[in-house]
UniProtKB/TrEMBL annotation:
InterPro entries to which the protein is assigned, alphabetical: DUF2164 (IPR018680)
Organism: Clostridium fungisolvens
Source taxon at top rank: Bacteria
Pfam families referenced in this protein's UniProt entry, alphabetically: DUF2164 (PF09932)
Name of the protein: DUF2164 domain-containing protein
Amino acid sequence: MRKEKKITLSKESRDSMISSIQEFFHNERDEEIGNLAASAVLDFIVEELSSEFYNQGINDAYRYISERTEDMLGLQK
C-alpha cells in the first residue's frame, strides 16, 4: 500500500484560503470566525477531503489523455 503524501501549502496560499473561508462564513452564514477557527476548517479539508479532489483530478486527466490518444490513433494511415 502506498503511503499518502501530505499536502503542503505555501504561507501565501494558506493565508488566502483562510481568508476565503472567513469570507464564506461571513457571506453565507452571517458568522464571523477568526483565523484559528478558519485554520481548523482548512486543516480538516486538507486532511480529510483533499485526496478525493486530487483523485478526481487524476481521473479527469487520465480520461482527457485517453480521449486524445484515441483521436491520434484515428489519424493512422
